Amino acid sequence: MHPVIVALDTDVLKALDVAKALRDEVAGFKVGWDLILEGGISIVSEISRYGSVVVDVKIADIPYISSRLIDKFIRRGACCVIVHGFLYPSNVNGKHVYVLAKMTVPTMYDYVWEKLLDEVEAVRGFVLPGNQPEAIKKAREKLGCKYRIIAPGIGAQGGRPGEAIEAGADFEIVGRYLLEDLSRVSHWDRLKPTCFTSP
Asked: H/E/C letters for each residue in 134-177?
C-alpha cells in the first residue's frame, strides 16, 4: 500500500474506474464537493467499496449541524470528514474528524495554524499543505504521533511526491497528478506513513 489518498476530483465514471484500478495500491480516496454534486451522497458508499473514503466538504457550521452532517457521511461508509479549523473553539471533534489547519494556498490560516495545532484536541488528525514541507515538519514536531497528518497539494500545486511524507505526513493527497497517469503511483513505492497506517 502506498501512503497516498487519491483525490477523486473528476466525473463519476472516471472516479469509479480509478478507485477500482487503485484499490489495492493506495490507502484511500478523497471525495469532495465536485463528485458529490455530480453523483449524490451515494457516491461515498460506492467509492467506499474500494477503500477508505475521506470526505472533503470542509464543514463549517455550528457543532449540532456539523455533527449531523458528519454522521450522514460516516453512515454511508466514509472513515472521516474534513472540517474547517477556523471554527475553533466551536468545532466538532471525534475519531472521524480531520481539522483543516493550513491550506495549500495563502489564506488567513497562515496566521493561526500553529495555534490550532496547539489548541485543538480529540480529533483524528490535521490537514496540512503537502506543498509546504516545512509546515509539515513543524507540525509533526509539535504533534508527535498523537494525530494523523494528511497532506494535499502534491503535483499540480507544486508539492513533490514523497516530500510531505519525508517531512512527517502520514498520507499525501494526490489528485490531478495521478488522475492524468495512474502509473505514477509507483513514485511512492519506497515510502511509508510516518505514524499511522490507515487514513
From this structure: HHHHHHHHHHCCCCEEEECCECCCCECCCHHHHHCCCEEEECHH
**DSSP code string of 32-66:** EHHHHHHH-THHHHHHHTSSEEEEEEEE-S-HHHH
> What pLDDT does residue 91 have?
87
**Residue-wise over 131-165: b if at least 16 C-beta within 10 A, else e?**
bbbebbbbbbeebeeebbbbbbbbbebebebbbbb
| pTM of the shown model | 0.97
Catalytic residues: 58
pLDDT the model gives residue 134 = 98
Nearest-angstrom CA–CA distance, 102 and 163: 17
Other C-beta atoms lying within 10 Å of the C-beta of residue 25:
16
For 75, the grid coordinates are: 453512515
* pLDDT less than 50: residues of the chain: none
pLDDT 10s digits, 116-129: 999 999 999 999 99
State the DSSP code for 128.
Answer: -
